[in-house]
Every structure is written in C-alpha cells, then in structure tokens.
Amino acid sequence: MTVRVAFLGLGHMGAPMARNLAVAGHDVIGFDVSPTARAGAAEGGMPVAETAHEAVAAASVVVTMFQTGRQVIDAYAGTDDGDGLLAAAPAGTLFIDCSTISVEDARAAHGLAEAAGHRALDAPVSGGVVGAENATLAFMVGGSEEDVAAAEPLLSTMGRRVVHCGGPGLGQAAKVCNNMILAASQIVVAEAFVLGERLGLSHQALFDVASNASGQCWALTTNCPVPGPVPTSPANRDYQPGFAGALMAKDLGLAADAIAQTGVDARVGLLARDLYRAFADGAGAGQDFSGIITMIRSGSDDPGGRG
Ligand code: NAD
C-alpha cells in the first residue's frame, strides 16, 4: 500500500530529506510557509502544496522539520480554532517530528497529537545537512514500539541508523544528552591544546599521545580543533562547519531546559551552554563549534569581534 507522506519544513535539512523520500518512490507532498522554500522544492521536481491543509488532507504520515518547539506546537494545534495540522489530517495519522526541540515540547506535541486521535513520534537527527543530502542521518526516536515500526521504512530511507530510545520525548532526551557530552568534550580538548601551546608542547605531540591514551574522543580524533593532526577537521578550513556554533548553542539551551526541569547537578553542561552562547553571540555563530578554541586562546568571550 502506498503511504502518502506530507513533509512540512523544506529548509536546509527538510528539503533534502523530503527529496530522498521522493527519489526512493514514496508518495510525498511538500509544504513550507516560505514561498522561496516552496519554489526551491518545486524546481527540484517535488509536488508542493499551496497550504498546509492541502498537504496533510490525504496524508497518512506527516513529517515536520522546523526550527523550534513553538513552531511545532503552533503548527500542530493551530493558532486559531481548527486551523492546525491535527485538525486537518485524517484520523490516525502518524505525526513524526524531526525538529530538534525540548523534551517538554516534544511531550506536549505527543499529547496534542494523541488527544486529537493521531499517533506521534519525536525523531530528531544527527548528521547535519551532509547527512540529510546523502541519507546517512541517525534518528533518535521516542514513541511506541508499534509507531516506530511503522515509521522505520521512511526513516531508514532518509538515514542509516534508527535508534528507538523509549517513550515520548526520549528521542529528544538522547539528542540533548549526546550533544552535551560533545560540547563539553570539544571545549576541554580545545583547552588542552591551548594549555599545551603555553607549555611549549607541539599540537602533533599532544595529539599523538592523547589520541592513543585515555584522552581519546571524537572531539579530538575527528573534530581536532587545531589544523594538522586530522587533515579533514574544520580547523584546516578556517572552521567552516561542520556543525555551526549557533546550532550547538541552541542544543545546549535545550539541554539547560532539561537540567532545570530535572534538577540535575550538571555544572559542566551549564558552563558549556554559557561558553557556546558567548561563542555564538560573537564570531562563532557560523563557524564550526570546534572554533571555540579561538575564544579560549584569546581569553575573551569575543575573539573575532561581533558578527
Ligand atoms: P531551516 O530554518 O533551514 O528550516 C526550517 C524550515 O521550516 C524553514 O524553511 C521554515 O520556513 C519552515 N517552517 C517553519 N514553520 C513552519 C510551518 N508551520 N509550516 C511549514 N514550514 C515551516 O532549519 P534546518 O537547518 O533545516 O533545521 C531544522 C531542524 O533540524 C532544527 O530544529 C535544527 O536544530 C535541526 N538540525 C539541524 C541541523 C543542521 O545542520 N542544519 C543538524 C541537526 C539538526
């Protein structure tokens, strides 16, 4: 049976994800509130609806890929009575939200969908725009076993790894926890290189030791924040992303929300949030997040000037 998929949010991530579904033979109709995004998708050959209602009217799966939790909840529930996606979709539609949003918002979105007689999953991704284009994303999924099984063929068309993390919101929980580990380890690897510099230790010597010792981690061996030891790391191309500082700052804000909600003593995670916020407010918004080494080296929260 052909499953009609409405794909809403045709931005940097959503456009290539929707295209991969269409190329694999799924019946996909796209929609974005931005006329430019709609025109871009239509030029690429994707059927595009003129309104969100038109997109979801005959869908059995609705995928959303927006920026924020507010956008997801407003789109689901509508801002005026009856104008939301939940009211417009056929009963029992599977809503899959791939946006990175807070655990709390994801649970609220699940609740709204279920109250309206639908099914829901939170399915944030890692792998960035390159992963979206090459269909190599990793999906972290929260929701029921049955709904994950129903979504699996679509998710594995857009990515190469699907992990069912547990019930509603736990896909987002896995995403914020992983990115908190990543942020803190990237910061401390950068601090270690700057400390080594001041002590007269070469980048290569520190790398050769730490990458074969207990300091080994992805932030060092793949995303090495100094040029040289790992030729493919963003440090070798002036910190072009990669994963942009602004996105890391956003994800750490979501981690901080979860920390506040649970009362966990996560001081390192909160400090990482503060440092990445300063980095993204300054020169780092569009740089790879490993570029935070420049801020650490300068000893200032605004190494390259604003903008
Ligand atoms: P983007 O801003 O490029 O795309 C979001 C799109 O959603 C925009 O085109 C916007 O017009 C559209 N939109 C917003 N509200 C809408 C609505 N109600 N109906 C239809 N369309 C609507 O953002 P992006 O870079 O594609 O990121 C999307 C999500 O994926 C974010 O939550 C981000 O944190 C996450 N993410 C991004 C990356 C990345 O590298 N860009 C990596 C992993 C996760």
From TrEMBL:
Pathway the protein acts in: Amino-acid degradation; L-valine degradation
EC number: 1.1.1.31
Highest taxon in the source lineage: Bacteria
Signal peptide start and end residues: none
Catalytic class of the enzyme: oxidoreductase
Stored InterPro entries: 3-OH-isobutyrate_DH-rel_CS, 6-PGluconate_DH-like_C_sf, 6PGD_dom2, 6PGDH_NADP-bd, HIBADH, HIBADH-like_NADP-bd, HIBADH-related, NAD(P)-bd_dom_sf
Molecular function terms, GO-annotated: 3-hydroxyisobutyrate dehydrogenase activity
Catalytic activity as recorded in UniProt: 3-hydroxy-2-methylpropanoate + NAD(+) = 2-methyl-3-oxopropanoate + NADH + H(+)
6-phosphogluconate dehydrogenase NADP-binding domain segment(s): 4-166
Pfam families: NAD_binding_11, NAD_binding_2
Glycoprotein as UniProt keyword: no
Domain 3-hydroxyisobutyrate dehydrogenase-like NAD-binding intervals: 169-295
Key words, A-Z: Branched-chain amino acid catabolism, NAD, Oxidoreductase
Keyword NAD: yes
PANTHER family per the UniProt record, alphabetical: 3-HYDROXYISOBUTYRATE DEHYDROGENASE, MITOCHONDRIAL, 3-HYDROXYISOBUTYRATE DEHYDROGENASE-RELATED
Protein family per UniProt: Belongs to the HIBADH-related family.
Listed name of the protein: 3-hydroxyisobutyrate dehydrogenase
Source organism of the structure: Microbacterium invictum
Gene (UniProt): mmsB
